[in-house]
Amino acid sequence: MTTTDTPLDKVLGAKTAKALAEYLELHTAGDLIYHFPRRYDERGEHTDLRQLEVGEQVTVLAQVQGIAVKPMRARKGNMLEVTIGDGSGATLTCTFFNQAWRERELLRGRWGLFAGKVTEFRGKRQLNGPAYQLLKADATQDEAAEEIEEFAGALIPVYPAAEKVPTWVIAKCVRTLLDTFQPPDDPMPGSVRAKRNLVGIGTALREIHRPSSEAALYAAKHRLKWDEAFAVQLTLAQRRARAAAAPGTARPRRDGGLLDKFDAALPYELTEGQASVGEEIAADLSRAHPMHRLLQGEVGSGKTLVSVRAMLQVVDAGGQAALLAPTEVLATQHFRGISAQLGALGRAGELDGDLDGTQLTLVTGSLGAAARRAALAKVADGTAGIVVGTHALLYEGVDFKDLGLIVVDEQHRFGVEQRDALRAKAARPPHVLVMTATPIPRTVAMTVYGDLETSVLSQLPRGRSPIASHVVPALEKPAYLDRAWKRVKEEVAAGHQAYVVCPRIGEDEESPLSDTDGESARRPPLAVTEVLPALQQEYLKGLRIEMLHGKMPPDEKDAVMRRFAAGEVDVLVATTVIEVGVDVPNSTVMIIMDADRFGVSQLHQLRGRVGRGSAPGICLLHTEAVEGSAARERLDAVASTTDGFKLSEIDLEQRREGDVLGASQSGKHSHLRLLSLLRDEKLIKEARVEAAELVGDDPDLAGHPALAASVAALVDEDRAEYLEKG
């Protein structure tokens, strides 16, 4: 009998097992049985070739329609061109170099499965040297059906595959495995299975690979999705239970303290959202167990102000607050911004400071020795009530007198071990407020941030201007790009400033090599070091232009940002280092070069850097993506709305679930592959309810050892950390 722990070489032989391990990271029977098909082709229902995209690794069921042998022009030898079609009217060319012998078997009219990477040459889509498996020549419809049945049955599973291990090879391996596979004991509690009408694990694993009917396949997928959702929600429920039981220090609001003085001095009223979220946080801080709250809000919605008010409440209660930022640029920006907001309240001990105030200090890796010693002394003796810093706050030697609150800005940039390192600097578990400007769909918040209470700021503060966004299709309409540069000049002439954002720095970065055999390679993304001289010498000649990127020395980056903020620079050519926290209200226009190389949420974040003052903002999305392509549709969506939550759902639709749940982050093979955070909201909610009930009765799952083991397999330690990290 074969179990989930059986090595694949014992089942499939050494050669096949080696290929599965090398190309797909499948090592055990459990790895292979959980390598689920990504879709299914129905017998007689051919894949529509019109839907294939260049760059996609595909498997198609198609018929040979034409064949020709041609001499190669650039070198000796010949090229075999085979035209295949699927009955939809579209065709695909398969090319083989110096393999004319294949002409004897790839006969006109033969049907087969063809697998390879879709490329384009001279306007024609093609597969270069595809692997293929032909159906029997002159087979009747029934015989062809039997041939296909050898691979997978009535519904043909199409697996995530590799060039050296095509989908039909995987299907054969799975069939061999299923002949001897002994499914594990069902980890799902019987009460949950009965209540939620779930099939057994053995049935689900067989039907997902060899479905006997559409209904059986649906039931199998539904059960396996439940396993994934339940594992994640149990992990989060356990974390919530531990957090609720942890002892903390209450930091109640003090009448007449710094927070009251700060509120009284504000030159504007809080938005309704800022006020209500502020009350939620104030109540959390007043309790004797640690707050764990996520604050999400659109770019410019006023999250920093909410966090400053929380920090002042903690300082009023005798504690210290630390704001952790992902970059020195952002940490310095926060330090200056909070210093300006607090005014005299943040300068206690100075001539113009408030006697009852506190002090701010900045801790970054680039501080000189003397400045570092002075800053750390203020942190250690409690003089600095508010400490702003980067990862440097985590280092040994940074000691707090009484750390009461940690504010983590742009939460997704930090690992759980970094957050834990800062927590460890407090005598008792501190309150934690994590902030993100990336809007999060409800199911992602429920799944990825499920151990945190969530607050949302949806209103923009008064005085913020609207941002208009437009796609600039450089290949189709080159005049549009010329007009974009003119628009930058017009904004600068009106006294405003501009950003030009590029995907790459350009220094010491490898460019993709051109593909051989006639496939035209996509050009490398535009780089800061390439675009800067072109702007200086031609398109924006005469303007004051500087660059900013992550590889510059910290003091140089800081100097550039100071000059830009002071209005001494007209145009800043930068990478995504400006994505978060950079606040220059005089900036009104942004051009994002090769915008299709960025994700939806990242584009939304970037454009939030303009329109931060009274003048309206404009964001121009430069692209060479053609109309109708997925990349262009993505940009059109970004241009059509400034609703971050709507865009976050578009972003989620285009990402693999594993990316959201941490598979790509951990760099490991993931078993979380069926659950859709966009489409399975109802299922996730139900799993959350069942998980909370089960953990309430049995916090450590001691009465359910098989379930505990299943959770550990589906959400391993790395992925559990990623869930906490977000």
From TrEMBL:
Keywords: ATP-binding, DNA damage, DNA recombination, DNA repair, DNA-binding, Helicase, Hydrolase, Isomerase, Nucleotide-binding
Domain Helicase C-terminal intervals: 480-653
The keyword Hydrolase is assigned to this record: yes
Alphabetized Pfam families for the sequence: DEAD, Helicase_C, RecG_dom3_C, RecG_wedge
Enzyme class: isomerase
Positions of the Helicase ATP-binding domain: 284-457
CDD domains to which the protein is assigned, alphabetical: RecG_wedge_OBF
GO molecular function, one term: helicase activity
Reaction catalysis annotation: Couples ATP hydrolysis with the unwinding of duplex DNA by translocating in the 3'-5' direction; ATP + H2O = ADP + phosphate + H(+)
EC number: 5.6.2.4
InterPro entries, alphabetized: ATP-dep_DNA_helicase_RecG (IPR004609), DEAD/DEAH_box_helicase_dom (IPR011545), Helicase_ATP-bd (IPR014001), Helicase_C-like (IPR001650), NA-bd_OB-fold (IPR012340), P-loop_NTPase (IPR027417), RecG/Mfd (IPR047112), RecG_dom3_C (IPR045562)
Coiled-coil regions listed: none
Assigned protein family: Belongs to the helicase family. RecG subfamily.
Function in brief: Plays a critical role in recombination and DNA repair. Helps process Holliday junction intermediates to mature products by catalyzing branch migration. Has replication fork regression activity, unwinds stalled or blocked replication forks to make a HJ that can be resolved. Has a DNA unwinding activity characteristic of a DNA helicase with 3'-5' polarity.
Name of the protein in its database record: ATP-dependent DNA helicase RecG
Protein species of origin: Actinoplanes ianthinogenes
Origin organism lineage: Bacteria, Bacillati, Actinomycetota, Actinomycetes, Micromonosporales
Gene that produces this protein: recG
